[in-house]
Design a protein that fits this description.
Number of helices: 9
CATH architecture: 3-Layer(aba) Sandwich
Bound molecules: S-adenosylmethionine
CATH class: Alpha Beta
Strand content: 15-25%
Shape: globular
Number of domains: 1
Largest sheet: 7 strands, mixed
CATH superfamily: Vaccinia Virus protein VP39
Number of strands: 7
Helix content: 40-55%
Structural class: alpha/beta
Strand order of the largest sheet: 3-2-1-4-5-7-6
Order of helices and strands: HHHEHEHEEHEHHHEE
Radius of gyration: 17 Å
Length: 243
Amino acid sequence: THFGYQEVPFEEKASRVADVFHSVAARYDVMNDLMSLGIHRYWKRLTIERAAVRKGHQVLDIAGGTGDLALPFAQRVGTEGRVVLADINESMLRVGREKLLDQGVGGNVEYVQANAECLPFPDNHFHCITIAFGLRNVTDKDAALRSMARVLRPGGRLLILEFSKPLHQILSRVYDEYSFKVLPRIGEWVAGDADSYRYLAESIRMHPDQETLKSMMESAGLERVDYTNLTGGIVALHRGIKL
Ligand code: SAM
C-alpha cells in the first residue's frame, strides 16, 4: 500500500487477528477511549437504543470482546432473558467476564468462545444479534452474515456497528492520517504495541463501504436493511430484520 505497510496475506489473517487481540485485551477499554476520544461510547449507546432489547429476550453479542454491549443488554433482558457474549478470542472474553462480574452482572449472561462464521447456536433462536467493530476482522464475512441470519428468529434484528466510508474527502484524508500515523503511535505509547494498531488501521480501510455491506446483508437473507452514518460516515450502524 502507499503507506508502506505490508498487507496481511489472506490465509494469515485469522491468526493475525488472534495475536492482535491477545496482545491488546488487557488495555482494550482504555485504548478505545483514547483512540476514539470517547466517541465509541456514543456509537455504542445508539446501537443499544436501536437494539430495543426487552425483558425476556435472547440476545447474542458476537465479537463482543470486553462486553460494552453485553453489559447493558444483560441489565435489560432481566432474569427471564439471556445474553450470550461470544468472541473467538479467550483473552478478550476473560476481560469481558471480569468486567461484567465487577458490575454485578452475571446470572443471565453466558460466555461462549465462537467463530462468527459458524455460530454454535440453534436456528431461529435470538431476538437480537449485535456485532460491534467485529465484522471487519472476520475472514469470510458472507459466511458470518449467513450464520447470524440463521440463528436469528423470525422478526429478530441484526445490528452491525462498524467503521465505514467517510462521506467527505477532506474528512477521509484527515481520518487516514489519524489512523495510519497517530493511532500506531498511541498504540506504541500505551500498549507498547504499534503493529497491532497498524493492523487495525489497515483492516478499517479494507472494510466494505455502507452500500456494499447493505447488499451483503441482503444476500445473506436479511430484509428491510438500512443504515445510519455516524460521525460523518467514519462509522455506520446497519440494521436488518429476518422475516
Ligand atoms: N465488540 C467489542 C467492542 O465493540 O468493544 C469488541 C470489538 S474488537 C475491535 C473485535 C473483536 O472481534 C475482538 O474481540 C476479536 O477477538 C473478535 N473477533 C475477531 N474475529 C472474530 C471471529 N471470526 N469470530 C468472532 N469474534 C471475532
